[in-house]
């Protein structure tokens, strides 16, 4: 990701997204947003900086990975790594009656975590963006329905992002509650591990099966590294009770709201998509999250007639057809430009070179399959769009 | 904003955006994004949490409003309130030659500020979202052009958001550099003040003119409160020199990059738009940043035939015509629902009531003008869209 110009390091576990990397990240965010809205989950925004008090109320102020600080008056604050306390604090003041439930809310917000060992890359960082959603229901049956809705949305999100993934049972960890699942994307760079067999997938931390064991439904268990891209929790009343988030039921009795919590990491999805797709020449983006659909390379210098043909193609792709195009019009060698295009891995590379243009064509190459097409200059833009539509399936 | 259900307080100077408020905020962000991209300014993302070191290099580590903290190893960190240090640190490593310039980058990111006196509302908070852009040029003349491009983009942003605003000269303050302007939106709730006269506008801190003085081009100076919604700075080499951001010019000589910095606050734009437009009944949103275009009120209860007509209208507006509709189908009284609609202030309110539906109509009211329309149920959705298009001008 560094080599392809997606990210740059600012400090240990602190990364800046350059424009190409941020475009991919934002595409993942948008897919998440659409799927959350599709299940009636509404977007909001909660602060990163929070009073320590609500964390003391739930007994989580002591979490070692949480950054703690003081303001100029000496009041204790924290940098939130998740938002159960904050959302439950608000819900305790907004929800009164069973008529206000069920309710689902999410935000896409910066998180801070004082990692003991931040690693290279975006997998274990001290600051990252997370989508966290929260569900509020009258009872366990309601929570089961909300959990199911989120599960279906998660499947659509990860499929749309082009990932190979597994949903596995997991430990509730510091969240508490009655059940949890993780979403694992197998790839060599993963820091977690998942045990896979035909019809079976589990986090190695919660299964007693080991690599090479017979699988529960046949086959052999294989333990592979994976990136954890999301996790969902049945919280129950773990937060609503200490923070006083209750509602009046049909009989007028006060009862605690039954909650769920649903996290997903756009940066980890980007990283997993890269790791799963890359070849020895660089990234192979899934179309839906590629920073640009077309990487247009002009091999001519400014002022040469071949350069004008490339300029026109760029305008046509962008203005007329609304395509996302990265235009490499740098004053650099052909080899460098083509290598850079392979490395960045946009789905379609179009090369406007002297030899092709003399024949009236530009060369289009599909990054994923290596398939090459000669496109007549006059309708190159529309032909390119046609190829892209084919790639999107 | 609290009463209309846009925001909720979490702590002193710490606010949560509820879905309605966050929708308006995101609309402003999107307008900013489009206008930045329109001038070739590319989006990226830089961290909030930063090593103290880069701030020591520029001599700004001592800023009292900056939150400071330590990680678990005792290394000093800060929460960034602006990103000159971070972007210049990266640019020093990315830019080598005059061919890499000019360059403009922006991000929309959370900022933290240890305000001595956080006030009620979103004007003076300890956490807020800001768009900050940075320009990088070869010389002062390049900076002048970048500054002009940003100035034009700022005018389009504030016009599109429906604000009355003035651009005034201002002090460079803690930013340093050779010149600065502020964008001021006059309104009673403003914490700044601007001196206005025909053809004249200035921050009261940089002008010697007072309320009642003769204006420089005639008329009388009037000092009015205003919200500062943006500020732009000619930084020059204030940051590039200490952080070593240089480039090689055509002659191969190493020279410091000449920088500009351009901030704008979406939450302040939202607040100013509300303050400038509101009447005694509540918010009157400019169409472009209203959380929803249509506020549909059903006065019937679930199961009643009038409710089904409202349900159908909702689906038609949303699914067929793609309108943004808030549907009030609560089990509440007509008075409460209509008052709430006035308070939230969406551009068009449609009421589906028993009396109207008996005549085959729904009632559409324009929030800004009070104009009322009776729309035949069968083509109410399309008629409503027509009215909205007229409002957008």
Tell me what the structure shows.
The structure is a homodimer of 393-residue chains. The two termini of chain A are 26 Å apart. The mean pLDDT of chain A is 95. In chain A, strands 3, 7, 8, 9, 10, 11, 12, 13 and 16 form a 9-stranded mixed beta sheet that branches. In chain A, strands 18-17-19-20-21 form a 5-stranded mixed beta sheet, with helices on both faces. Chain A has a 3-stranded antiparallel beta sheet with strand order 4-6-5. Chain A is an alpha+beta fold and 393 residues long. Chain A has 9 helices and 21 strands. The first copy, chain A, folds into 2 domains: 7-277, 2-Layer Sandwich (BirA Bifunctional Protein, domain 2), CATH 3.30.930.10; 292-392, Rossmann fold.
Summarize, please.
Two copies of one chain form a homodimer. Chain A has 393 residues and is α+β, with helices and mostly antiparallel strands. Chain A has helices at 19-38, 53-58, 84-94, 140-160, 266-277, 305-320, 334-344, 354-358, 380-392, and strands at 7-11, 14-17, 42-43, 49-51, 67-70, 76-79, 103-112, 127-137, 166-169, 179-186, 192-197, 200-203, 222-236, 246-248, 254-256, 258-264, 294-298, 325-328, 348-352, 361-366, 372-376.
